[in-house]
Amino acid sequence: MILSISYDLNKDGQNYTDLYDTIKTAPGYIRAMDSYWFISSAESVKTWSDRLLAVIDKNDNLFIVDITGQSRQGWIGKDVWEWLKKHDPVTSHTY
């Protein structure tokens, strides 16, 4: 499945290393925007939420959603569209 992960780390000088390292344990991943990633994983949204919540602060924000097989539109890098096409091909996209 393809999960989208969005977050805001609210503390000044926040250390992103643990968060990035944890995201990069997914079998497939790509950073689409500053605080937005796509990952390819057989594990559930809850599993990933629990995993990422363990490495961020309680005052941070995290949102994860399964987008597998869903139509998508937007203006993001061509490399991100190619990654999505490879991991979860759908017919509707713009780049």
Structural description of this entry:
27% of the residues lie in helices and 25% in strands. The chain is globular and about 35 Å long. It is built from 3 helices and 4 strands, in the order βαββαβα. It has helices spanning 17-23, 45-53, 78-87, and strands spanning 2-8, 28-33, 36-40, 61-66. Strands 2-3-1-4 form a 4-stranded antiparallel sheet, with helices on both faces. The chain is of the alpha+beta class. It has a domain at 1-58. The chain starts with a strand and ends in an 8-residue tail after the last helix. The model has no long low-confidence stretch (mean pLDDT 91).
Brief sketch in words of this structure:
This protein has helices at residues 17-23, 45-53, 78-87; strands spanning 2-8, 28-33, 36-40, 61-66. By secondary structure, the chain is of the alpha+beta class. Strands 2-3-1-4 form a four-stranded antiparallel sheet, with helices on both faces.
Q: What percent of the residues sit in helical stretches (DSSP H or I)? A: 25-40%
Mean pLDDT: 91
Principal-axis shape? globular
User: Which class do the helix and strand fractions yield?
Assistant: alpha+beta
Strand content: 25-35%
What's the alpha carbon Rg, rounded to whole Å? 13 Å
What are the segments in which pLDDT stays under 50 over at least 5 consecutive residues?
none
Terminal CA distance = 22 Å
Question: H/E series, N to C?
Answer: EHEEHEH
Report the sheet with the most strands, covering strand number, pairing sense and barrel closure: 4 strands, antiparallel
